[in-house]
Every structure is written in C-alpha cells, then in structure tokens.
Amino acid sequence: MRQKAFRARDELLLGSGLTVIAGALDAYAYLEHGAVFAGLQAGNLVLLGINFGQLQLAEMGRYLTALLAFVIGIGLSRGLQRYLEKRQRDNQNVGLWATFGLLIIVLATTGVVPDWVATALLSLTAAVELQLFQATMGLETVLNVTATLLNGTRLKDREARQKALDALTTVGSFVLGAVLVAAFSKLLAGYTVLVPILVVAGLIFWQYEQNHRRKWKH
Q1: pLDDT tens digit string along 167-209?
Q2: For the chain, counts of helices (H) and of strands (E)
Q3: Distance from CA of residue 150 to its chain's centroid?
Q4: What distance in Å separates the CA atoms of residue 57 and residue 1, rounded to the nearest whole number?
Q5: pTM for the predicted model, two decimal places
Q6: Which of 55, 120, 139, 157 is buried deepest, with most CB atoms within 10 A?
Q7: What letters, b where the CB count within 10 A reaches 16 and e where it falls short, cover 22-35?
C-alpha cells in the first residue's frame, strides 16, 4: 500500500509539472506570438472561426499554422512512442528531453524568426508533451473535476474525493504555468520561454533522482 501511495504521488507530481509547462506554453504563445495557443487547439479553432466570420483572412494563417504543426507533432510523437516501446526505452525520459530540446530552439531563435515559425515550434512542443505524457487539460478536465467532486461529496466516496483533489491540483498547475508566464512577460518579453524551460529542467533532474533511488534500492 505504501509503495502504491508513493507511485501515485510521483505520478501526480510529474503530471502537475507537465501541466505547468502546458499552461506556460499556451500563455507564452498567446502573449508573445500573436494571440495564438500552443496546445489548446480548441481555442485556436474558435479564434480561427471568429477571424473567418469577420473576413480577416490574413489573420487566419497563424491559427492554421498552429493547428497544422500540432497535428504533425502528434503524428511524429506517436511514431516515436511506438519506436521507443519496441526498443523498450523510457518514453517519459525521452519525451522530457525532446520537450527541452524544442524549447531551447525556441529560446535560441527568439527575435530572429517570425511569429508564425515560433508558434509552429511551440505547437510542435505542446503536441510532443501531450502525446508522450497524455497530459489532460482544458475544459474537459474542469468538467471531470466537477463531476468527480460532486460524486465524492454526495456519495461520501473518499476515493472520488481524492481523485477530484488530484484533478484540481492538475488544473491549478495549468493556471500556475499561465500565471508565471504572465508575471514575467513584462520583464523578459520573448525570453519568458525560460519559465517552461526551467520547469522541464527541474522535471528531468527530479526524474533522474527518482530513477537513481529505485536502482539503489534494488
């Protein structure tokens, strides 16, 4: 039971860290690269529809670029995931390093490439993270949290309440990522991408420590 509890806690910490990154990516893309979302493609579809309805055809390209890059990222990530499974490699570890590498490219090209290229890179990064870690975010998560929390309260289901609290932690982490980017955006501007980079670096170090401890115990 104790080992199971530790595993659940580790998964929650990892999931929360990944969701901080997801929130940070969306906030960064929106604030610094033309009001486009990196991972929340439902938001991009709404904005695409608004621009189409107002006949602002020139503005539609940024959203189409983000959507296309996200789809390509999902396809590449699935291929990589299948390859790693055949090779019996750690998907999470490779995914973290892939996310880190893509964000370093975004940082290195800040102020050099146009916004649509930066948005494409950010959407590609968000797709890698979403596919490899199966991060859950957005409206669907909020609905699940509400339903689970209501069930736990009404039926006095302790397990349901715990699941709801875990989901609330994940949703809060998404908001935290957006808050951190917004707080530093005036100071760092385009270099606010350092926020998700530091979080990814922290997760890589944390996972390394966890793996080292497991090997030491065995």
Answers
A1: 778 788 999 999 999 999 999 999 999 999 999 999 999 888 8
A2: 8, 0
A3: 27
A4: 58
A5: 0.83
A6: 120
A7: bbbbbbbbbbbbbe
